[in-house]
Amino acid sequence: MAEMVTQVRNEEEIIRQGGGEKAIESQHKKGRLTARERIALLIDPGTEFFELGAYAAWGMYEEWGGAPSAGVVTGLARVQGRLVMLIVNDATVKAGAFFPMTAKKVIRAQNIAIDNRIPTIYLVDSAGVFLPLQEDVFPDTDDFGRVFRNNAVMSAMGIPQIAAIMGMCVAGGAYLPLMCDHILMTEGSGLFLAGPALVQAAIGAKYSAEELGGAKMHSQISGTVDYREPDDRSCLARIRLLVDKMGNRQLGIFDRKPPEAPLHNGEETYGIFDSDPARQYDMKEIIARIVDASQFSEYKSEYGETVLCGFARIGGFAVGIVANQKTHVQQVDHNGNKRMEFGGVIYTESAEKAARFIMDCNQNLVPLVFLHDVNGFMVGRDAEWSGIIRAGAKMVNAVSNSVVPKIAVIVGGSFGAGHYAMCGKAYDPRFVFAWPSARYAVMSGASAAGTLVEIKIKQLERGGKKLSEEEKKKLYDEVKATYDEQTDPRYGAARLWIDKIIDPAETREAIIMALEAAALNPEVAKFSVGVLQT
Question: Which segment of 75-79, 137-141, 512-516, 518-522 scores lowest on mean pLDDT?
């Protein structure tokens, strides 16, 4: 595990370099700071930037030279003591142009802000849509236009938005700052629907960039800009002054008491957790290193033991925890027969227990934390006779209709319908975190390879061709390698299925940050599950 954590940290350090030294030097020659330099000056001294989506576009767009972090930096930070969402274009990456994943990353950050009512600050420095890929950036509900729609929706919801134009802001992108509460602009920046070259091509007129959309023009003539600032540092200082004057809305209704540190060191997790799916470990030991005072009040501790449910506090917040137990347990069925249940597998009894617990948490306004290490639901005749599909549907129903904040942490495997039942990305968790050891897909690489190879062999045999053992092994290895790559958490994080890959020792801190964000939203809808299969 320590090696995997080190690898992630090293890769993130490379990602943080953005477009590289030459691009950074070019940004500095313009008298501008880089995205991360701006963030460092904006946030409160002594606090850390909780970055989200760092791996966005990782391994993608290689034919265009790549797009580290999708050319935009997003995350949570403290500004004047207030928790805010930062969305900051990185002009060192293709002049801050919007790749398909750039738009999706901005929208994900906005959606987190919407769900949790987080004030949002945009530091704009972008050339607009990356034209060679415009067909994948422009039209859909998770593409470029949705950013401005979200601006309007956030404003209507009363979520404060501040936009600072600190470079180029052109074409459709010019609407973003105009749909925010406060607009700042630095000297030398440009804000226009069409730049000088396009204006000349369209109407034959020649204007300078300053005439068309400079900071002075927008401050004195169009009246578009609220604050004209001489440079980046002055602009960032002004933003801090504006945030300082914001009023305080009602906080969330979730119970919180003074936090207590766990009795055990989080780094001990490295020696407890085992990423080998065939090996056992006790998830209760992981929980003891996350929750306050290591106190976990387990719910139905002797029933459905392959899924752990219980109440605890994390950072003082009351939470309900649903976690996959990875030790094998002996159970007695309804006929009095003993059977061994495998860790990481959801059985009928454990699904029913989890469904009831999730409903209880919603009834009592307790946020939910899901710790994933699940192979899926149990299969076979006994499982089908026990009503595994009915029980699984009940758990999925409870998760789907849950109205309290949900936070998912994928520590190991998260496969198939088990991923869904444990509040996968499709079930609206406020945040999805993953350990470097996480793996998730329809099934594991080994299982998928075995299944797909068997199908391929039968297809070939029907055509009269028979594979040798060597050919079978080669085919198996090729399929497994592809599947293993796609189950890697970095693959998921690149596509924003995961918000942040975290060090296991820092799981508690990540969950606390998520809970503090969730507490900003005092609105909880009425809980109703509709029809449940009983």
Answer: 137-141
Q: Is there a single domain that holds both residue 72 and residue 161?
A: yes
Cα separation of 317 and 314, whole Å?
Answer: 5
Element (H, E) at 242: helix 232-244
- For residue 184, the model assigns a pLDDT of 98
* Residues 62 and 83 placed together within one structural domain of the fold: yes
Do 217 and 82 share a domain, yes or no?
Answer: yes
In tens, the pLDDT along 377-409 reads 999 998 999 999 999 999 999 999 999 999 999
Classify residue 525 as exposed, middle or buried by CB count within 10 Å of its CB (0-12, 13-18, 19+): exposed
Q: Determine, yes or no, domain membership for 526.
A: no
Is residue 395 in some structural domain?
A: yes
User: Phi/psi class of residue 186: alpha, beta or left (left: φ > 0; alpha: ψ in -120 to 50)?
Assistant: beta
Query: Both 275 and 195 in a single domain?
Result: no
Residue 129 DSSP one-character state: B
Backbone angles phi, psi at 413, to 5 degrees: -75, 150
Instruction: Point out the domain boundary residue: 193, 213, 244.
Output: 244
Residue 529 inside a domain? The answer is no
CB 416, CB 376: distance < 8 Å: yes
Q: Are strands 307-314 and 317-324 parallel, antiparallel or unpaired?
A: antiparallel
pLDDT tens digits, one per residue of 338-391: 888 899 999 999 999 999 999 999 999 999 999 999 999 999 998 999 999 999
State how far the Cα of 514 lies from the Cα of 405, in Å rounded to an integer: 9
CA 261 to each of CA 280, 290, 368, 525: distance values in angstroms, whole numbers, following the listed order: 27, 9, 20, 32
For residue 273, give its domain range: 266-438+498-518
pLDDT reading at 440 higher than 90: no
pLDDT at 441: 78
Specify whether the CB–CB gap between 66 and 266 falls below 8 A: no
Residues 65 and 181 in one domain: yes
Give yes or no: residues 287 and 332 share one domain.
Answer: yes
Query: C-alpha distances in angstroms, 83 versus 76, 371, 407, 428, 515?
Result: 7, 25, 18, 21, 12
Based on the fold, state whether residues 425 and 459 are members of the same structural domain. no
What three-state secondary structure class fits 530? Answer: coil
Q: Evaluate whether 144 touches 102 at the Cβ level (below 8 Å).
A: no
C-alpha distances in angstroms, 464 versus 430, 469, 471?
53, 16, 15
**pLDDT value for 247:** 92
Paired with 87 in beta bridges are: 74, 122
From 209, 244, 279, the end of a domain falls on 244
Angle at Cα 153 formed by Cα 151 and Cα 155, nearest 5°? 70
User: Does residue 218 lie within any of the structural domains?
Assistant: yes
Q: What is the pLDDT of residues 51-80, one digit of tens each?
A: 999 999 999 999 999 999 999 999 999 999
pLDDT of 134: 86
Q: What is the CA radius of gyration of the chain?
A: 26
Domain count, the chain: 3
CATH number of the domain to which 324 belongs: 3.90.226.10
Sort strands 161-170 and 120-126 into parallel, antiparallel or unpaired: parallel
